[in-house]
Amino acid sequence: MNGLFDLNGKTAIVTGASTGLGKGMTLGLAAAGANILLVDHVPSDETLKEVTALGRKAEQLVINLMQEGAVQTVVSKALQVFNKIDVLINNAGIIRRAPAIEFSEKDWDDVMNLNSRVVFFLSQAVAKDMMKRKYGKIINVASLLSFQGGFIVPSYSASKGAVAQITKALANEWAKYGLNINAIAPGYMATNNTKALREDAVRSKSILDRIPAERWGTPEDLKGAAVFLASKASDYINGHVLAVDGGWLAR
Questions:
Q1: HEC profile of 45-65
Q2: Tens digits of per-residue pLDDT, 186-200?
C-alpha cells in the first residue's frame, strides 16, 4: 500500500512555495520522496532548507510569474535541474479586497492574471514535457470561492471559479495522454491571506461557527491531499476539485 503514495524519483514544481499552503504541500511531497523546484516571487530559503533536510534535491527560482517569459523560464529551469517534470502544483496566488462597486481594473487584472492565466499557461508548458512520457500530475489550488461568491473579493472569486473550470477542461483533453489534472480547494486556512479575518473577532467567530471541525485549517492539512493527487493512488481521478475544508461545504 505504501507504494501507492511513494514519490521517490519524482520531480515537482511548486509555485508560491516560500510560505503558507505552498510550503505545507512542498514539505508533504518531499516527505513522500519528491525532488522539488521551489518557485516564488521571494526567496524560499527556509522551505529549501527543510526539503534538503529530508534528503531531497531542491532548487529555488525567484521570479515574478506575471512577467513576460516567466512560464518558460520556470519550465526550462526544472528541466535543466531535473531533466523531467512529473508533478506541478499551481499554488501561487494573490487576493485584493474591495467592494465590487469600487473595484479597480488593476486589481481585477492582477488577480486574474496570476490566479488563472498563469495557471493555464504553466500547465500548458509543463504538459508538453509530461506528454512525452505519458505521465504527469497537475494540481491546481482552487478555493471555497470556486463554489461560492464571497464578499468584497470579486476578482478572487472569479479567478478561483476559473481554476475549477480550467482543471476540468484540461482533464477532458489531456487524460488520454496519461495526465491527471485535479485541484485542491482549501477551506479557511490560517495563512497570511486570512490574517485580517482571524483578527476580526466577529468575523472569525462566524467562520468558526460554520466549520464542523471547529478550527481553522493549517498548511499541514494539505500535505496528505497533495501527496494523494501527486501519486499513483490518484491515477483514475481526473478533473476533480477536492475540498479540504473541515466540513465547511457540508454545512
A1: HHHHHHHHHCCCCEEEEECCC
A2: 999 998 888 888 998
**H or E element at residue 138:** strand 136-141
226 CB neighbour count, 10 Å cutoff: 30
Give the length of the chain. Answer: 251
Catalytic residues: 156
Q: What is the pLDDT of residue 97?
A: 93
pLDDT category, 248, cuts 50, 70, 90? very high
The answer to whether residues 160 and 112 touch, using CB atoms and an 8 Å cutoff, is no
Residue 48, C-beta contacts closer than 8 angstroms, at least 6 positions apart? 38, 58, 59, 60
Domains of the chain, earliest start first: 2-250 (3.40.50.720)
Give all strands of the β-sheet with 136-141 in edge-to-edge order: 58-62, 35-40, 11-15, 87-90, 136-141, 179-186, 241-244
pLDDT of the residue at 138 = 99
